[in-house]
Design brief:
two-stranded antiparallel ribbon; about 180 residues; about 25% helix; 6-stranded mixed sheet; alpha+beta; 10 strands
Amino acid sequence: MATEVVKRLINVDEYYKMAEVGILKPEDRVELIYGEIFKMSPIGSRHAAIVNYCAKVMNQLFDGEAIVRIQNPIRIGHDNEPEPDISLLKFRPDYYTSAHPRPADVLVLIEVAGSSIKFDREVKAPLYAAHGIPECWIIDLENNQIEFLSKPQGDTYTETRVFVPGDEVWLIGKRFSVKELLIL
């Protein structure tokens, strides 16, 4: 008789317990997606620079209107806790001290992608869409472009636009130069 092999997935509470007891170390760069722990790609210097620059610009433009978080968790359901490169969140005076933000708190999530581009497009973007995140940007380092995904329906974004150097992209009424965001 054949038996089927079934994965044993974990939830967010178990994920935190693994960190608490030392199975996951503070220096481990991991995130929980659909109950599985994924190792995150190393951060190159251009990737880090773009994340820092975008966060600086957004902090200046949205001061007091929204909260900008860098590589911090978003709690999505009971088995997902991704760490997008940049999260632009609804403003709260407590800066989410009581709990990580949830999908209803998110205005846009930004992933800066080099080697992780396929994972960001095929796994993380559908996760974000399935949970109603209104907008997702994928900053494609290899092709020097920004993929703007919006209008989530099911596990897909129904509107996709690509912006290249020379274009401008808008976010909540604020204008950004693609060339400037890509630090070209």
